[in-house]
Prior knowledge:
The complex is a heterotrimer.
Chain A: H1 4-10, H2 12-30, H3 34-55, H4 90-120, H5 125-134
Helix pairs in contact in A: 2-3, 3-4
Chain B: H1 3-22, H2 26-47, H3 50-74
Chain C: H1 2-19, H2 38-49, H3 54-62, H4 64-85, E1 95-99, E2 105-108, E3 121-124, H5 133-155, H6 164-181, H7 184-190, H8 193-217, H9 228-231, H10 235-267
Antiparallel strand pairs in C: 1-2, 1-3
Helix pairs in contact in C: 2-3, 3-4, 3-10, 4-8, 4-10, 5-6, 6-7, 6-10, 8-10
Amino acid sequence: MSDLIPxxxxxxxxxxxxxxxxxxxxxxxxxxxxxxxxxxMNIFQTAIILFYxxxxxxxxxxxxxxxxxxxxxxxxxxxxxxxAHYINPLPHVLMLTAIVVSVATLGVALAxxxxxxxxxxxxxxxxxxxxxxxx
Amino acid sequence: xxxxxxxxxxxLVVVCAIAAISVKDLLGSAILFGAYSFMMCLLWAIMGxxxxxxxxxxxxxxxxxxxxxxxxxxxxxxxxD
Amino acid sequence: xxxxxxIIIVLSGGLLLYAxxxxxxxxxxxxxxxxxxxxxxxxxxxxxxxxxxxxxxxxADYRGFDTMFETTVIFCAGVACFMLLRISRQTxxxxxxxxxxxxxxxxxxxxxxxxxKSKEFERIDTMWTPFDLVIKTVCRFLIPFIQLFALxxxxxxxHSPGGGFQGGVILGASIILLAISHNxxxxxxxxxxKLIGLxxxxxxxxxxxxxxxxxxxxxxxxxxxxxxxxxxxxPVSARSFGILIVEIGVGIAVMATMIWIYNNVSSAGKYDxxx
Lengths: 135, 81, 275
């Protein structure tokens, strides 16, 4: 027990990301309403994106935009660029596109939910299954 | 990075997420999801991922909330859980 | 169902929590993710592409192929929404008109209508819609500035946070704001369905066309230094300009897709009245 607390304190970020991920997964499995399931899917997505972005973080580093003087011609940066001075940009790039794709998939998911509602006049999963079995 | 600020926003994010999936009204769920996205955007800004934070502020907190509200408007607010 | 879900999330969550002890320390500069590829991006991208914002440089140049297909995915999502929801057949419906000078509301049943060009009457939605001068005027003032900011975000993505995705979403949001503050018909009059579909394709075409142009000139697909001979620049500046062209393409595609999805979802495919 005594060595568990420093372990949690050192990595509390990761623990909270996993909590968020599990909240999203729970909503996707257990919730009965289709829009609630879509909300859960988005929470799951953002939790994973959060985890990826946190991999690129560096202690004591600044945002990934190279400092340059106004008159610098291209390539002629006067000082040498230190790697430890800038945050790793690669996870940011991958996740930036993932966010925009997530809103596109959200649009498709909501379109499907509206289609289901127009046909069955309900968004609850068990009522929809009952209607399908009843026919 | 200031760890007190980080921990406070992480707590708020978890609270918003739990509230968004447990509230008994889909419109409220959509608005709470917008709040969740905005908290997430703050978290990324603290981490130094400015581009990702900008994208999340415009996409997650802006457009996807509008999509949710539009879909709820076209279907129903009622939910059992 | 609830019990099964709880068991699943406890099991998988426990496994993931157990795995955290193998993760590198929080914000460790020597973590494996920061050792292999990113040092090259950080050190060389300024002299290879002359773009200070590393995220833009990696997004549109080093990983340009990736971003091209992300844009295509967004385009496909827009088309999927359109295919799922759009209803072309119009049944006769009730319409509501408001007499502008007196505010009297008229309800016409069974497909009858007042000519749309009529100056005394304006068509309103079937839900209760009050005449809201403040909201309409404020939004009308605000929208040009939002659009100007979006163009700045696209054009200044080389030096500050921003780029095609963000700027495109903000441009789309400005049209969505017009649709919310007035009504959907006003927005579709400004930007109709055909134009939206055309812009969607144009954005993806600009991106892929830039790559194909590089191929035609004789270098690899999406290697923008080939554009030097077309733009009369040195190869490094040509890469910077290539990124700008590609970002404009992404911005157009994303803007059109956001408006398209909104129009389809908010009117359930009928395009007559929205949120």
